[in-house]
Design brief:
Length: 74
């Protein structure tokens, strides 16, 4: 099953729900960090959906949750 296409703003809202905080923004890139040390960067281009490959990389490598866990948060 394919990952859903979502915008950067939607992803940031989901990340904040699971404990990530926006640290800073540099240009269109939003830097987020979790209390346990996990970090990620979300490119925020208004009106554009995130590429599924990038979303998959963020889920697997950066925030370390499964697709199933992610889909429950949407």
């Amino acid at each position: 099953m394919k990952l859903p296409q979502i915008t950067a703003i939607e992803l940031i809202k989901i990340l904040r729900k699971i404990g990530f905080e926006v640290m800073r923004q540099q240009g269109s890139h939003v830097f987020l960090r979790h209390k346990d040390g996990r970090t990620t960067v979300v490119p925020n281009h208004p009106g554009d959906k995130l590429d599924r490959g990038l979303l998959n990389k963020i889920l697997r490598k950066d925030i370390q949750i499964t697709r199933e866990e992610f889909e429950e948060l949407i």
